[in-house]
Automatic annotation (TrEMBL):
Pfam families noted in UniProt: NTPase_I-T
Names of required cofactors: Mn(2+); Mg(2+)
Domain Non-canonical purine NTP phosphatase/PRRC1: 6-155
Catalyzed reaction equations: XTP + H2O = XDP + phosphate + H(+); ITP + H2O = IDP + phosphate + H(+)
Function: Phosphatase that hydrolyzes non-canonical purine nucleotides such as XTP and ITP to their respective diphosphate derivatives. Probably excludes non-canonical purines from DNA/RNA precursor pool, thus preventing their incorporation into DNA/RNA and avoiding chromosomal lesions.
Domain of life from the UniProt record: Bacteria
Keywords recorded for this protein, A-Z: Hydrolase, Magnesium, Manganese, Metal-binding, Nucleotide metabolism, Nucleotide-binding
UniProt key word Oxidoreductase: no
Full protein name: Probable inosine/xanthosine triphosphatase
Presence of the UniProt keyword Nucleotide-binding in the record: yes
Stored Gene3D superfamilies: 3.90.950.10
Quaternary state and interactors: Homodimer.
High-level lineage: Bacteria, Bacillati, Bacillota, Bacilli, Bacillales
Length: 187
């Protein structure tokens, strides 16, 4: 069983390796088919699902994982949000979201002017490639939580759900409805 991650971003690939230390994990560049800067939970989640679907190989034992970063409002406050999706080679889809933190007004304004958070963060922190290192979450938590750590938590939520429902299927093969498995996505 191999795991294909829909990104070349090292924070995402390393997060998956951390949670699946015994699996072969590779990163592949795939389009998210949502905006470069997703602006809601719904769009960010969709990006993660799209990436995962493009990675999975239904003929081979390769599962796909998509991780997507975005932003979303609660009232007038902008938050950083992150979503992950795991698609099995039999087409089951598991999703989970990550921690959210507030983003300052200055960043909100620049994003609304059409800039991408990755570029805004480099200027704000006067650093290079923040998105591939500590991430916005690292900068705004004083380096207590890195982008990789945050994604690793999301991947744990995916792995845990996948394992739980696989186990349920083994234990109760004819009672999918009764076990109340999560509804699968129809693309
Ligand atoms: O190569 P990919 O996988 O696309 O990785 P990415 O860094 O572009 O990450 P996403 O597409 O998932 O994130 C969407 C946008 O938000 C930015 N972004 C999201 N979370 C971030 C973070 O924690 N730090 C810096 N930029 C972030 C990111 O750079 C993009 O501009
Ligand atoms: Mg991107």
């Amino acid at each position: 069983m191999t795991i294909s991650v829909g990104s070349k971003n090292p924070t995402k690939i390393e997060a998956v390796k951390e949670v699946f230390p015994k699996k072969r994990v590779t990163g592949v560049e795939v389009p998210s088919n949502v905006s470069d800067q997703p602006f809601s939970d719904k769009e960010t989640r969709k990006g993660a699902i799209n990436r995962a679907f493009q990675c999975v190989n239904f003929n081979l034992s390769t599962i796909g994982i998509g991780l997507e970063g975005g932003v979303m409002y609660v009232d007038n406050q902008l938050y950083l949000c992150n979503w992950g999706a795991l698609v099995t080679n039999t087409g089951e889809v598991y999703t989970a979201s990550g921690a959210r933190i507030m983003l300052p007004k200055a960043i909100d304004e620049q994003l609304r002017n059409g800039m991408e958070l990755g570029d805004v963060m480099d200027r704000y922190a006067m650093k290079e490639e923040v998105r591939k290192k500590e991430g916005a979450i690292g900068i705004f938590t004083n380096d207590l939580i890195s982008r990789q750590e945050m994604f690793a938590h999301v991947v744990k939520l995916l792995r845990g759900q996948w394992e739980f429902w696989e186990e349920q299927k083994r234990k109760r093969p004819f009672s999918n409805v009764q076990t109340g498995a999560p509804r699968n996505e129809i693309r």
